[in-house]
Design brief:
Layout lengths: L1 E4 L6 E4 L14 H7 L33 H16 L9 H16 L5 H5 L4 H17 L3 E4 L10 E9 L5 E10 L20 H13 L23 E3 L10 E4 L9 H15 L3 E2 L7 E2 L1
Antiparallel strand pairs: 1-2, 3-7, 4-5, 6-7, 8-9
Length: about 290
């Protein structure tokens, strides 16, 4: 929002749209320039003092100059020392301290393996391999895939393992997590996926529910869905190569459920959740497709 002065009417207006003219200066005139300009002549015989002849200590004193007594000078130096001593050395980060902190931070990141091969050769390989076996067991439980023979017309997607250690607020290690992800960046639109839209809940709906629950003394519960994307049913035939750590003989696996990393996995999960909520009599609102009521 801009407030501008109309030079023709002398009124102030408010507008959102303005355009600056950098070549026009309405208050600038040649008359004003002539009045502010004074001509002077520099004499060629003017003596210009050199550095050796100039001494700032010999300059005449002005009424604004104040000469400090020895006591004032001593107090001034003491105040400067007090300012310096008030700084806590522990709060001063030197280059060496910054390097140590950066080195510690990098060391903590490197501890997580970046691939299945690194996990098998990791100092905590026993824990990582146990986590991988547990994740593969969950996939078999949810029947995420089925075996398929290799066909030249099939273009399987590749997968990768993502490893992460879960740390609590006190910095203690609480859990080893391993997740199999499809390299979704290799998917081609029209071949491996089409529509990938999935709605997200609105923050205004959450505030409204919180307000109503507080006003009517309703109980609020929250939940976390385990193996979230393993509940999404695919509507398109997709294949993956046998992931590392999988002991099945088939080299090609046909996906029955969605996996992390697929571009359409959020949509498949929303469809599964929407169908489950419909079965218990809940329908989405028109203003927020993620807010249901009965």
């Amino acid at each position: 929002m801009f407030r501008i002065l109309d030079l023709d009417t002398g009124k102030v207006k408010t507008t959102h749209h303005i355009k600056f003219n950098d070549s026009l200066f309405p208050n600038k005139s040649q008359k004003n320039l002539d009045q502010n300009t004074e001509s002077f002549v520099v004499s060629g015989n003017l003596d210009i003092p050199t550095n050796s002849q100039t001494n700032c200590l010999d300059s005449p004193k002005t009424p604004n100059d104040v000469e400090l007594s020895p006591n004032d000078q001593r107090r001034n130096d003491e105040n400067q020392n007090e300012l310096t001593s008030n700084l806590d050395p522990a709060n001063i980060l030197t280059n060496s301290c910054q390097n140590k902190q950066s080195a510690s931070f990098v060391e903590a990141i490197v501890l997580d393996p970046k691939s299945y091969s690194q996990a098998t050769h990791h100092p905590d390989s026993k824990q990582w391999l146990a986590t991988i076996d547990n994740e593969l067991s969950n996939m078999n439980k949810y029947q995420v895939w089925s075996f398929h023979e290799r066909d030249e017309s099939i273009h399987p997607l590749t997968t990768t393992w993502v490893f992460k250690r879960k740390i609590d607020a006190n910095g203690n290690l609480t859990k080893y997590k391993a997740r199999l992800c499809v390299r979704g960046f290799n998917q081609q639109e029209g071949l491996n996926y089409n529509d990938v839209f999935s709605p997200t809940g609105k923050l205004a709906s959450l505030r409204l529910l919180t307000k109503l629950s507080h006003q009517h003394l309703f109980q609020i519960d929250q939940m976390d869905v385990l193996c979230l994307f393993y509940n999404g049913i695919l509507n398109k035939t997709l294949y993956i190569f046998r992931p590392d750590g999988c002991k099945e003989e088939s080299k090609i696996l046909k996906l029955n459920k969605s996996l992390y990393g697929l571009k359409q996995s959020p949509q498949f999960w929303h469809n599964a959740l929407n169908n489950a909520l419909h079965q218990i009599g809940l329908v989405p609102t028109k203003t927020d497709p993620c807010l249901y009521y009965s």
